[in-house]
């Protein structure tokens, strides 16, 4: 293709780079018990996957995929936490999180997944306020 025949130059997406850094941060945070790094990594991966789905045209907005990704991450980490816990009672889960390294890491990832779900529900509210309010961030 000739550059003159293409009216709009194609730009590459930044989402894959964010996803790659998010995966590395999440793995490092989970492996070494760095809670803030792990949560930030999980949030970056979830947000970038939702952004990629939206950018590719598979979703009208990134909010629904963000909620879905958060729910899947939360369910998977809750399953791991329950699997390493001796019983499925609140006391046993808390005890497992206090004594078992895998359980505490699963709890951290569960919290990050819950934050993705909250962001998926809060995002449309915040973005709609910017469009209907008196001030806009574009001006």
Give unreliable regions as ranges: 134-139
For the termini, the CA-CA separation is 37 Å
Counted up, domains total: 1
Give average pLDDT, whole number: 87
What percent strand? under 5%
Q: What proportion of the residues is helical, as a percent range?
A: over 70%
Task: State the helix count.
Answer: 5
Order of helices and strands: HHHHH
Taken from the alpha-carbon principal axes, the silhouette is elongated
Radius of gyration using CA atoms only: 19 Å
Structure class: mainly alpha
Total beta strand runs: 0
Main beta sheet: strand number and arrangement?
A: none
Written account of the structure:
With 139 residues, this protein is mostly helical. Helices cover 74% and strands 0% of the residues. It contains five helices and no strands. The protein is elongated. Residues 134-139 have low confidence and may be disordered.
In short:
The chain is an all-alpha fold. 74% of the residues lie in helices and 0% in strands.
Offer a few descriptive terms.
139 residues, mainly alpha, 74% helix, disordered C terminus
What's the helix and strand layout?
Blueprint: H1 15-32, H2 35-55, H3 63-84, H4 90-99, H5 101-132
Helix pairs in contact: 1-2, 2-3, 2-5, 3-5, 4-5
């Amino acid at each position: 293709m000739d550059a003159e025949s293409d009216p709009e130059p194609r730009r590459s997406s930044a989402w894959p780079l964010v996803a790659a850094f998010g995966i590395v941060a999440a793995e490092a945070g989970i492996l070494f018990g760095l809670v803030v790094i792990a949560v930030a990594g999980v949030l970056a991966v979830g947000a970038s996957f939702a952004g990629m789905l939206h950018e590719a045209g598979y979703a009208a907005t990134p909010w629904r995929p963000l909620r879905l990704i958060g729910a899947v991450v939360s369910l998977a980490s809750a399953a791991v936490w329950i699997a390493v816990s001796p019983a499925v009672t609140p006391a046993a889960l808390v005890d497992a999180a206090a004594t078992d390294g895998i359980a505490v890491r699963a709890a951290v990832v569960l919290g990050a997944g819950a934050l993705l779900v909250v962001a998926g529900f809060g995002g449309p509210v915040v973005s709609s306020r910017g469009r209907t309010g008196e001030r806009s961030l574009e001006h």
